[in-house]
Design a protein that fits this description.
Glutaredoxin; Tscrpt_reg_Spx/MgsR; 50% helix; Regulatory protein Spx; alpha+beta; single chain; 12% strand; Thioredoxin-like_sf; 8 helices
Length: 115
Amino acid sequence: MMVKLYGIPNCDTMKKAIRWLGEHGITYQFHNYKKVGVDEKLLRQWVDRVGWEALLNRRGMMWRRLDDSVKAEINEESAIRVMLETPSIIKRPVLETDKTLNVGFTEEAYSKLFS
C-alpha cells in the first residue's frame, strides 16, 4: 500500500503521526508543504473527497493571522486560494493511501486505517 504523509515537520501533531507510523513499521513518503508547497489539482481532489472545511485549519496561528475580511467571506474557492498561498494553514497531517484520505491524527483513526 502506498502511503503519503503531507504536512510540515516541526508540527507537534505531525511528530505524533510520524512516531506512530514508525512504531508500527509503516513506510510512507513525506511531502513537506514548507519546501514543496501543495499542488492545486491535488488540493482540489482533496476538497472533493473531504470538503474544504475539513482541510482548513481554523485553530492555528496562520488562520489568526488572516485578514478578518478574508475570514468573513470564506467559501470553497477562497479557502482553496488561501490554502494554496499558505499551505501551513492546511490541517495536519493529511495521510493519503490508495483508498483513503485522513485529515488530522488520532491513534484510533490510524489503527483503524492500518488494521
